[in-house]
Amino acid sequence: MSILIDGKTKVVVQGATGRDGSFHTKQMLDYGTDVVAGVTPGKAGERIHGVPVFNSVEDAVNETGADTSILFVPHRFAVDAVNEAAAAGISLVVCVSEGIPILDMARVMKDLKNNSATRMIGPNSPGLISPGKSKVGIIPGQIMDQGNVGVVSRSGTLTYEVAHHLSHAGFGQSTVIGIGGDPIIGTGFIDVLRLFEADPETELVVLIGEIGGTDEEEAARFIKEKMSKPVVAFIAGQTAPPGRRMGHAGAIVSGGKGTAKEKIEAFRDVNVEVADIPSRIVDLVKAKLS
Amino acid sequence: MSILIDGKTKVVVQGATGRDGSFHTKQMLDYGTDVVAGVTPGKAGERIHGVPVFNSVEDAVNETGADTSILFVPHRFAVDAVNEAAAAGISLVVCVSEGIPILDMARVMKDLKNNSATRMIGPNSPGLISPGKSKVGIIPGQIMDQGNVGVVSRSGTLTYEVAHHLSHAGFGQSTVIGIGGDPIIGTGFIDVLRLFEADPETELVVLIGEIGGTDEEEAARFIKEKMSKPVVAFIAGQTAPPGRRMGHAGAIVSGGKGTAKEKIEAFRDVNVEVADIPSRIVDLVKAKLS
Amino acid sequence: MNIHEYQAKEIFRKHGIPVPWGEVAETPEQAKKLAADFGKPVVVKAQVHAGGRGKAGGVKLAAGAEEAETAAGKILGMEIKGLTVRKVLVTEAMDIAAEIYVGVLMDRKLGGPLFMVSAAGGIDIEQVARETPEKIHKFAVDPLRGLRSFEARNLAFRVMPDADSAKAAAKIFPCLYQAFADSDASLAEINPLIVTKDGEVWAIDAKMNIDDNGLDRRPEIAALRDADAEAPEEGEARNSELSYVKLDGNVGCVVNGAGLAMATMDLIKHHGGDPANFLDIGGSSSPEKVTTAMRIIYADKNVKSILFNIFGGITRCDDVARGIVEAVKGSPPPIPIVVRLTGTNEEEGRKILGKTDLIPAATMDEAVQKAVELAETPGGTA
Amino acid sequence: MNIHEYQAKEIFRKHGIPVPWGEVAETPEQAKKLAADFGKPVVVKAQVHAGGRGKAGGVKLAAGAEEAETAAGKILGMEIKGLTVRKVLVTEAMDIAAEIYVGVLMDRKLGGPLFMVSAAGGIDIEQVARETPEKIHKFAVDPLRGLRSFEARNLAFRVMPDADSAKAAAKIFPCLYQAFADSDASLAEINPLIVTKDGEVWAIDAKMNIDDNGLDRRPEIAALRDADAEAPEEGEARNSELSYVKLDGNVGCVVNGAGLAMATMDLIKHHGGDPANFLDIGGSSSPEKVTTAMRIIYADKNVKSILFNIFGGITRCDDVARGIVEAVKGSPPPIPIVVRLTGTNEEEGRKILGKTDLIPAATMDEAVQKAVELAETPGGTA
Prior knowledge:
The complex is a heterotetramer, with two copies of chain A and two copies of chain C.
Chain A: E1 10-14, H1 19-31, E2 34-39, E3 47-48, E4 51-54, H2 57-64, E5 68-71, H3 75-87, E6 92-95, H4 102-115, E7 119-121, E8 127-130, E9 134-137, E10 146-153, H5 157-168, E11 173-178, H6 189-198, E12 204-210, H7 215-226, E13 231-236, H8 260-269, E14 273-274, H9 281-289
Parallel strand pairs in A: 1-2, 1-5, 2-4, 5-6, 6-7, 10-11, 10-12, 12-13, 13-14
Antiparallel strand pairs in A: 3-4, 8-9, 8-11
Helix pairs in contact in A: 3-4, 6-7, 7-8
Chain C: H1 5-14, E1 22-25, H2 28-38, E2 42-46, E3 59-62, H3 65-75, E4 79-80, E5 83-84, E6 88-92, E7 98-107, E8 112-118, H4 125-131, E9 136-140, H5 149-159, H6 163-182, E10 185-195, E11 201-203, E12 207-210, H7 219-222, H8 232-239, E13 243-246, E14 251-255, H9 258-270, E15 277-280, H10 287-299, E16 305-312, H11 317-328, E17 337-343, H12 346-353, E18 359-360, H13 364-376
Parallel strand pairs in C: 14-16, 16-17, 17-18
Antiparallel strand pairs in C: 1-6, 2-3, 2-6, 4-5, 7-8, 7-10, 8-9, 10-11, 10-12, 13-15
């Protein structure tokens, strides 16, 4: 088991023939992901790394039975691509694109809710990987090992850093998922925690948060009320100045809200241990799992 | 029994203080309808024929428990009024207004479907009456008698004409409903036929159609497949020239489609008798019910 | 309301659809000058609210100015389906490599806009729909969000001859939908959308019908109405918010409600008469509307009797009665008027009419029979 | 991005919101002339990206031109929360009978726009939210359909002092929402919306923050950026699509990914150092971005060491390595550079860096410790 993706996941890559799309299609194939189709309007009939390319997600789904999509399209086309995936009946769409206007995402979320059963991960997400089974996104597969730790994070590379330490220390992962650094995202901490709680393979969850918003505080409440499995956390941005956006559109302390201090306290209040530096997460995991 | 409205229906009148709203509020009250509230923004606290007026449907629902609304607002405000009723949780909204752009109605219908459980009757509808119980709309109550004939029609006054004959001949009505003369309406023939079929009080249905569209043809199919109760019909517009709109936005024969002849044939094909003139509907009813 | 091709093309142009150069001429000389200034071969096209212009000889190719003049001379004044051609569009003649049908209409059954494309372009789409419906690709547009880019692409790839023209067409389709929605159209059609030998994509014909209910809020569209294309009384009726359609019979009718008005016409025919018009005074009628209705019917010299068939709901019988009294005030009516009033404020209405020369009737059947009889009895009374 | 009150008011005005007369002055003399031409009492208001202007003395009433000049003289050049005031808005002084708060912001928890109104207008709304949250009426706007008329009315009747002003406000609220949506704002606020003694309704203050992600498609909004309000390197970084925030420390950092960049800053602090900046080179990085990043950091004279912390996912380690080599080409780096490269194309990246003077590190902890040490050792090497 794992969450959201496994060995049976059939992936279509939207924007497969572009630079990034082509590169990561190859990476996903090399990792063992069942990439069944690529989509680039006007390039139907071509192949990319052996994968057939279609003009539309609809055609790709009809021909290949793809159920999961990942976008490598410029951000101004990302909303249309998500909508296209949803309309074609894709159940999970991973949006890597960064820089999508927040209002557009609010509209997409409302539209998905009104008109489809599609779950979106991202935007501004590195995607997810269920080690040994499938990866959908840009997470480097070589640093991951299959195991029982679920990892969920608002960040990309910080997640790799943490997973790298976990793998080195012998703690493989059930699924590692980056939910994205934007203020409005398709799948939040609580959604993922609920999935990890229900996943028999996952024994412990590592949650990596950062400044901005109150998602970590709500996650803490959820952990207290609904989680039986242990959770450990790390929060980035303790030294970030207030009022400044730290890269991620969502990473900003505004009106005195969303500080790392508040989030760390919220976790400690519900007995979720928080590592002071990334490499020490391993120590917390070790303590819980042995 | 009856369909859609009965003695327990609590009505809010949107636009109650205008000329038509005030007149028909009085008429409905005189008929015995439980008009519990009026709505005119800015006139909260006033009373109209003894009925309290509120600034919003939301306030009216909260204060009075109204479940059904009827609009007497100029057509350019009708869409907003329907949306307001739906957002306030009104379950049945009757739209008398004529002249609403068709695209607006398409949008309203989609929005109601996405965001509410509200049923709309109309636009361009005279409303409905369950004789002896309640009337919501502008149908003159004095011509109706309580009984077992259900009447459904795209027209207003032609319905009165037919009901008048029925009452005179001793055939009272369970519910008389005008679904409206526009091309896109909230509740169609089939919706109403399904309700009449399920209503224990209704023994026979009179369906009054007219030229334009294919609603009558679809109703004929529905009657054949799903109705156990007898249905008799009348179709207006046999002498209407093609390509010209006969008053109702929906009453137009275009591209050779939607003629009275086709509709009459569709009914006769499924053994629904069609009266050649309105006064003879009574003879058909008499034959079926005795 | 129908608008002309040249008007629809102007709307398309404003919405970003590529439309070739074209100008309107009302005389052969104007057509000649336009073609001469343009300097390349043109097509001269009748501007008239009727289909099948091509078959009727209303569309002609002209290699130069002289030919354009000749073509316009033949087309202007021509009758197509009973309508006289008063304007021609002089427009660029284009090389056609492929022709596609593109249209969007308000679909009653669907309850919203239906977008349609077909590789069988340039011919009568209703014929395609009847004979080879599988050649038309249909898509239900969500009216809350319009035609989205990927939806347009999916349609375009089904009908365009190659990837480049598909991508070009996919940019045009949402513009067509927007032109449709922003105009409150009931139909907007490009037939054909062409691909030239150079791979360019152009809308070389355009058709739009407008939802009358939308004209109030689209004054710029309402202004496109061609007054020549309708009877003058129909314009007057519309300005008074009456629904009026002129017919050829001799029994004038004034009815409240479209269904009852149609049934009244049908009943006149049933009783051996011939209706002179459809006329619905609508709900919420004022006395002014009734007097206008009577003035319009008086103006029709075929009319030998007038029938009022009023069943009051939102229309009050007293209002109608007052309107009739107002209209016949001072002088007796020139032709017999049969009045049947039932419903809301019926008593008050009857009282108002009590002291006039009007012929009362208790039922619709009686009223129609009297009116038909009177129309057939020259100068007589029933 | 923040914009000034006078800019937000111009956007409001274009969206149909009633905004009183006002013009911008950059000198006391200009303020005097504006007030003199206007001829009625004015308010002189500091235009600066900071709240609490009133309390800081940045808003002054002036009965006439002389007073306006004096007021502008005091306000221009004033520092408010560390920012120097360079412009004032000279605007009509109005009689206030009632003050209302109206705002719309993008609410993360809700996942969409939240409209807020309160009868407690004219004061700090965050204080109201903390102390008397029941005084704020909130409404979740459906971003697919905007704020609808009846929704605006329902809100207006809750906070406006009478029916007439409620109806006027109900027309303004959807305009505010539209201004918000059409500008890709994250916040649009009228505080206060006033009712005058004559019953007129006016927006006398205006605040808008813009979603940076929306600026690409709103060039007219992007053009409102006040270059004086940010460090020049931040502008350069933005133009190269780098996220850069200048800080006060001496360890420059170049990191890929915002989370890792923040964690790197935190770790520098943890190891006793002080980060000189936040800098995220983002995904899909090109060598050019890396060279720009280094140029920006070199320009910060406080920086004593540079730390590259790269964990390749979509960013390829070889691209980063090429960028570093390009930037140090020809001359040895003026300050020590510690490089940690892991992830996609790690081997290729290491090879490219192999023959340079750069200081390699295997882990983030090691890299940070080295960089902190080097920053504290003047001119030294680790």
